[in-house]
Amino acid sequence: MKVKNICCIGAGYVGGPTMAVIAQKNPNINVTVVDLNEKRIAAWNDDNLDNLPVYEPGLDAVVGESRGRNLFFSTAVDAAIDAADMIFISVNTPTKTYGVGKGMAADLKYIELCARQIARVSKSDKIIVEKSTLPVRTAEAVKNILDNTGNGVKYQILSNPEFLAEGTAVEDLQAPDRVLIGGEQTPEGLEAIQALVDVYASWVPKAQIITTNLWSSELSKLTANAFLAQRVSSINALSELCEVTGANVDEVANAIGKDSRIGPKFLKASVGFGGSCFQKDILNLVYIAKSYGLDAVADYWEQVIIMNDHQKHRFAANMVRTMYNTVSGKKLAFLGWAFKKDTNDTRESAAIYVADKLIDEQANVVVYDPKVTDQQMYSDLDYLQTRSSEANQNALTVENDPYKALEGAHAIAVLTEWDEFKTYDWQRIYDNMHKPAFVFDGRSLLDKSALEQVGFQVYVIGQ
Ligand code: UDX
Ligand code: ADP
Q1: 13, 145, 155, 225: least buried by Cβ within 10 Å?
Q2: 187 CA distance to ligand 1 centroid (A)?
Q3: pTM for this structure?
Q4: Across the chain, what does the average pLDDT equal?
Q5: pLDDT one-digit tens code per residue, 294-313
Q6: How far is the CA of 432 from the centre of ligand 2 (A)?
Q7: Cα of 92 to ligand 2 centre, how many Å?
Q8: What is the C-alpha end-to-end distance of the chain, expressed in Å?
Q9: Contacts with 130 (C-beta within 8 Å, 6 or more apart), sequence order
Q10: Catalytic annotation, residues
Q11: Which residue, judged by its Cα, is nearest atom 2 of ligand 1?
Q12: What angle is formed at CA 372 by the lines to CA 371 and CA 378, rounded to 5 degrees?
């Protein structure tokens, strides 16, 4: 079969960019992205492409090319489901915050709601594509709901995990390392797989489109993220050892990365990984392993998270220790709040946890980030439930001008690797700070010796 109408439920960081690229590369397919969040849909439809709700380099051009032609954003969820022959589910699957599996398992309530809505509305056969990262065997639950609550129409469920990284989403979508499609190994299942292969084959070479059974596809996504996060925790573990022995973690990473079996990517020591996927997916993996009684497997992967938490805490503790064991009443300026550069996403960003620790120490934290809004920063802190919203408002200030943020500060913490930080006038910044002036570079982004020449006392992660 040839797909003519695609609906995507969920217009977030995954659904929005993915559908924009599918629509760009398939002008003959109508793609409608729906969301319950009216503000989000209005932003996707904003005439000014600078106001899209997701910041990604190059995304404005891709949306501008297809929007209104074959790419639509709407809140009319039922109508889009009804019209579609293929439905992507791209809703959020956060870690559960209540009940059984609290703090570990994925909360599938949004997925279940989607499945029930599809079952209620559909009057013709549909292919359902799981795009959100899901625990293994979710497809079975979705199929069960569809088959038992539907109007007698037939469904095929596919798993098509998204491997894009935020900040490089458009690049990753336009030239993916691979596309993975899992489905049932029955004639109908294979036909559905082929229909989705054809959508991607408009721009992805066939050799890079991998097809598997459903469970392999679902588990591959968790595994890919677990392996990537493990590399970051491994290099971060070594960063602490480097600091006490006099080795330089960047030099170690460079030396080991030249081994073609290890490779150079994902070896950058940092204040800790963030993002919506790594922690959630590993916790999920740990939960699944535990639920099968595989405690050694669960403990092995859990260590990746434990190391990451340790890295965030030791960064904050080191700031306090270096500043004579007290930061009470001191102005500490943060450069960056997003979990990595080139995104406005802050989910699980290390900056949130570092700020929380320093606020506990009664510091005045001032933040500058080129893309993150102040409401987002306050809501991130409130989400931790460490203290009242009012207390967070009093302890944290947001500045839109970096030089103002840094003026009069006792220390600067670099928490996101935004390129623009490297271009600042560091002499001017030093002149306007309290002395001694400290820089705590959690991304090894800045030129340490240049800063030292200006007069700063510099700490770089892993050095
Ligand atoms: C990740 C996966 O890369 C992607 O394939 C999947 O679809 C979603 O999860 P994302 O979280 O968007 O993507 O960004 P990624 O580039 O993987 O970075 C995750 C975190 O690890 C960031 O906080 C980043 O700063 C940190 N990181 C990454 C390091 O600290 N060091 C590194 O060497 C690489
Ligand atoms: P991701 O990073 O996985 O894309 P986001 O939180 O950015 O996650 O996006 C998920 C989107 O899915 C949100 O905008 C949310 O409003 C939307 N959503 C969740 N459940 C439904 C639903 N039942 N119908 C429509 N949209 C939904």
Answers
A1: 145
A2: 37
A3: 0.95
A4: 96
A5: 999 999 999 999 999 999 99
A6: 44
A7: 5
A8: 58
A9: 89, 111, 138, 139, 142, 157, 158, 159, 160, 161, 218
A10: 277
A11: 165
A12: 165
- Nearest ligand 2 atom to alpha carbon 347: 2
Report the alpha-carbon distance of residue 98 to residue 34 in Å, rounded: 28
Query: Among residues 410, 376, 437, 347, which one has the least CA distance to residue 14?
Result: 347
Atom in ligand 1 nearest the alpha carbon of residue 265 = 33
Element (H, E) at 398: strand 396-398
* Pairwise pLDDT comparison (375 vs 149), residue with the higher score: 375
Label each residue of 67-126 as H, E or C.
ECCCEEEECCHHHHHHHCCEEEECCCCCECCCCCCCCCCECCHHHHHHHHHHHHHCCCCE
The pLDDT of residue 200 is above 90: yes
Ligand 1: which residue has its CA nearest to atom 10?
165
Where does the pLDDT of residue 169 fall: very low under 50, low under 70, confident under 90, or very high at 90 and above? very high
Tokens read off for 109:
């309530």
Instruction: Establish whether residue 110 lines the binding site of ligand 2, counting it when its CB lies within 6 angstroms of any ligand atom.
Output: yes
Token pair in block for residue 286: 């740990």
d(CA 158, CA 206): 18
One DSSP character per residue, 120-189 reads: HH--S-EEEEE-S---TTHHHHHHHHHHHHSSS--EEEEE------TTSHHHHHHS-S-EEEEE-SSHHH
Closest C-alpha to ligand 2, atom 11: 10
CA–CA separation, 138 and 133 (whole Å): 10
Please say whether the beta carbons of 350 and 339 come within 8 A.
Answer: yes
